[in-house]
Amino acid sequence: MANSTEKLRSIPYAARRQHFFSELLKGAENVVAIIPAHPELVRNNDVHFKFRQDSNFYYLTGFEEPDAIAVFRAVGGKKEFILFVRPKDLAQEIWTGYRTGVDGAVSKLGADRSYSVDDFDAQMPKLLHGAERVYYGLHKTLNYNGVEYLDAKIPRMIEDHRKGFGRSGRGLLPIYDPHEILGEMRLLKSPDEIDRLRKASQITANAHCEIIQRCRPGLYEYQVEAMVEYFFRFHGATRMGYNSIVASGHNATILHYIENSRRLEDGDLLLLDAGAECDYYTSDITRTFAVNGKMTAPQRELYDIVLKVQKECVAMAKPGATLVNIHNFAVEELTDAMVTLKFLSGDRKKLVETLAYKRYYPHGTGHLLGMDVHDVGLYQTDGQPRKLQPGMVFTVEPGFYVLFDDNQVPDKYRGIGIRVEDDVLITPEGCEVLTSGVPKEVDDMAAMTGTKPLLG
Question: What pTM, to 2 d.p., does this model score?
């Protein structure tokens, strides 16, 4: 894996910052933007949760230390990137590791100026001088104990700034959320970002294959989860992209099931939704397969419905299409299947309009993917569904879920949960399925199931 210095060289953070400045200056001539890093959060006593940097902060800085604040100041025609960071502290570094420090923020991270984060309160009023508007995302910043603190500080600083003009009649500087600007910047992936997504997808696909090959009745969901994490980390993933869903039997009908405690029984399906994160870019794959390699007839019937819809949705993914159209197609096809199976009755159009299908298909067909598993970017522009463009990455994941106590359906279908999910990159010609390395055809998965020994 690339070390931190190599990563800083390979990603054009300075170019991203200049792009950010240009977007900020479309709204006013004199602006200040404040982008905080994530803090360290306490797990218990003096033990912290493992740190993961805020995606927007990392996107602009490449800096992985907690408790920092980036300020982007464009006033009077001068643009400055200013970092507030933890100061060097040998006693603390012995315990928790190297700190870049104030000088390193300039020499290594390209800041125009840097200060200790302890000086933020003293310096920020000066930095606000001359600004016409402030960009800051409210309700997104936490202090060491998980309590919001910049949300209180920033408005107070802006009020102090106004008071400095005396009886001028001036109002407070307006505060704008920079989330939309950064979301639009992050939406279309660069070649380097696509390479990282490919790497994450390859590691994730390989891990899913390893799990299918080692799956068998008698395992516990947490043992499968442990193998997933092992294969991710062993092959170079930075961390999990999100909490793995290892849902066997009727647990697969719980969309965000993460308890992962049940024993896999003969005859179960296993819905595995897990993605590796590599250098801040994540994959997101779901496969559903028989624990013993042999789907029952009802399981296969529902699975074939979902797989057919999923493949047709992937085929729709091309420039000019929309996620809304892809989702609407999936809803219509799945609703038709529900009527055919006699799970629902009535006219398809009315069943869709009344959301009756949500009883068995309650979620969307896809979401944007990138640094965050549910990534940023506008889903609508000018009041219309956004058209897909080359460089956009998203998931395609239709599903079918029948609760174990649903008395509206024949008993043989109850407790079956199916989802099939791939990650798709829009290209000029159509799309590339980044996660094609793991099979989804029933026979292909069946041929792999249980063919390798367990770990340990």
Answer: 0.93
